[in-house]
Write a structure and sequence with these properties.
Layout (H helix, E strand, L loop, with lengths): L12 H11 L4 E4 L7 E4 H17 L7 E5 L4 H12 L3 E4 L6 H11 L3 E4 L4 H7 L8 E4 L5 H5 L16 E6 L9 E5 H11 L12 E4 L11 H8 L2 E4 L6 H11 L3 E4 L1 H14 L8 E4 L6 H11 L2 E7 L6 E4 L4 H4 L3 H10 L2 E3 L4 E5 L14 E6 L21 E9 L4 E7 L4 E3 L2 E3 L1 H8 L5 E11 L3 E10 L7 H8 L11 E4 L12 H8 L6
Parallel strand pairs: 1-10, 3-4, 3-5, 4-7, 5-6, 9-10, 9-11, 11-12, 12-13, 23-24
Antiparallel strand pairs: 1-2, 7-8, 13-14, 14-15, 15-19, 16-17, 17-18, 18-19, 20-21, 22-23
Helix pairs in contact: 1-2, 1-8, 2-3, 7-8, 9-10
Length: about 525
């Protein structure tokens, strides 16, 4: 083998910052804050303040490899941590404030963080858990009084070091719905490659004319890599802090000219409901990417039909940085006509992206055909897929590199992947499989339904049967008969839920339906 004769410059997160400050220095970053006026600066300003923060971290004793934790929303100060901490060779652990206190404490202690940065709105939480934090020696509020005072006198330039691109950069923990949360340690190489792929036309399709507003939380798998993909492409960034209600999001979309945004389905359910009630329109918005759980078809149709906004599904997980697939159109689909193309995009999680390999494996270990019908365990492999969980001895991936996602899926001839269920959520009724996701997607289209959740519960004859739990929109007049009548012409008869109940649907810390809680709450419903 003849070695190549090209330079081996390592892929550094600081390289993204340096590039953005040079090539798109005047492109704006707009940030809401918890209790301060809106903040405006640009990529050049981000570069200067990240340099000041890097000097501050070193002054506080942070060394390469050390962990630093953040408990913060989508703000410019949190964004500065995203660049300064890994930039000096340390690791940023983005703690998830929506976890239970015990889980937050567990992740910070497991990370062995020395410094905790937190937004003012988490002051009470931090005060509550601080005595249990075994390694944190410094607490810093991300406020004008504390954070700004700390960095104010530091130099606005910093000699970002170059080191092994496989060094750790971000430590993100799974939501821990079963057992303790597991740490996924992203490398510089993985983050940079993931960011480059995220901006491609097959994924988010960014240009320097885009205005990107991440409504996926910065603490959740680095907000789908948007804090890195947007600067690489020179897009304007709009950071909404913790304000994810319809009115707040619409104000930013209109005032800042947002063209692209993304988040979990519950955010967009509330936003569409707000638009309907107020008669407002998102004038500049072109694309909404939705992940975390399957996108209800009715949501995608509403965005397109009423507002001309394209809905893109995304599938991924903390273990994939998190982009796995994105549902974007192709010429082959377009040739089938607009209706067929929409059908494919709205009913599938996405298509094969460069950098991620997909494999659907049947129960006997063989690869399923790419026919769009044969389902099996979904496995992934690639440069931004987890190999081993943080501080674990055994690899999470197999010896051949494949990582079992825990999802059941199909792949079709065009490379589109469709999640049919989680392995633990699929319903086995009388020896036949029922997809809880498919049932939820149909039920979510029923007028008055805010969230539809389907779980399998024990049945004396059929082993399991589907139970449909509905959380209705406030003031909506919808009953069991309405839901069943809506489902009847849209599903096969034996998939019909054995009962429909109305209750608040619990969500996980990442905004997904918490089926573990639902199964436990309703496990005797059909047997008692």
């Amino acid at each position: 083998m003849t070695p190549g004769l090209m330079q081996t410059t390592p892929l550094m997160i600081s390289g993204i910052l340096t590039y953005a400050a040079q090539a798109h220095g005047a492109r704006e970053i707009v940030s809401k804050l918890i209790d301060e006026p809106i903040h405006r600066y640009d990529y050049a300003g981000l570069g200067r303040r990240s340099a000041q923060l890097a000097h501050t971290l070193e002054r506080l004793g942070v060394k390469p490899g050390d962990r630093v934790t953040s408990l913060a929303w989508n703000t410019h100060r949190h964004l500065e941590l995203f660049y300064a901490v890994p930039g000096i060779g340390a690791v940023l652990h983005t703690a998830n404030p929506r976890l239970f206190d015990e889980q937050i404490v567990y992740t910070i202690n497991h990370a062995e963080s020395s410094i905790l940065f937190f937004d003012r709105s988490f002051a009470t939480l931090v005060e509550r858990i601080a005595p249990q934090l075994t390694t944190v020696r410094t607490l810093i509020m991300l406020s004008a009084e504390d954070y700004e005072t700390l960095i104010a006198r530091e130099p606005e330039t910093y000699p970002w070091p170059s080191f092994d691109e496989n060094a750790g950069a971000f430590l993100c923990y799974t939501s821990g719905t079963t057992g303790d949360p597991k740490g996924v340690l992203y490398s510089h190489r993985a983050v940079v490659l993931h960011a480059m792929a995220g901006g491609l036309n097959s994924a988010f399709g960014f240009t320097a004319f885009d205005v990107v507003m991440p409504c996926s939380s910065l603490y959740h798998a680095t907000a789908w890599g948007l804090p890195f993909s947007a600067p690489i492409c020179g897009a304007k960034l709009v950071l909404p802090a913790d304000r994810m209600d319809g009115a707040s999001l619409h104000e930013l979309i209109q005032s800042e000219g947002v063209t692209f945004t993304g988040g979990v389905p519950t955010i967009w359910t509330m936003y569409l409901d707000w638009l309907e009630k107020t008669g407002q329109r998102p004038d500049t918005l072109k694309r909404v990417v939705i992940g975390g759980s399957a996108v209800p078809r009715a949501m995608a149709e509403a965005f397109k039909r009423l507002y001309g906004v394209q809905t893109l599904q995304i599938w991924g997980m903390t273990e994939t940085c998190p982009i796995g697939v994105v549902a974007t159109p192709t010429p082959a689909l377009a040739a089938l006509g607009e209706e067929a193309m929409d059908e494919a995009i709205w009913t599938r999680q996405g298509r094969l992206q460069f950098g991620i390999e997909l494999r659907v494996e049947t129960e006997d270990g063989t690869e399923a055909p790419w026919d769009g019908e044969t389902s099996g365990a979904l496995l992934v492999r690639g440069p931004w897929v987890v190999r081993r969980y943080f501080r674990k001895d055994a690899d999470a991936a197999r010896a051949d590199g494949w990582f079992d996602t825990g999802d059941i899926a199909t792949l079709d001839a065009n490379g589109f992947m469709r999640i049919t269920d989680r392995q633990k959520d699929v319903i086995k009724s009388g020896g036949e499989w029922i997809s809880s996701i498919d049932l939820e997607n149909v039920a979510a289209g029923c007028p008055g339904v805010k969230i539809a959740a389907v779980v399998g519960v024990p049945h004396p004859k059929w082993e399991e049967r589907p139970l449909l739990v509905i959380e209705a929109h406030e003031g909506a007049a919808v009953c069991k008969a309405d839901v069943l009548d809506y489902l009847a012409p849209r599903i096969v008869k034996w998939w019909t839920p054995d009962d429909v109940v109305f209750a608040a649907v619990p969500l996980t810390a990442t905004g997904k339906i918490d089926k573990k809680v639902l199964r436990e709450a309703w496990r005797t419903h059909l047997t008692s």
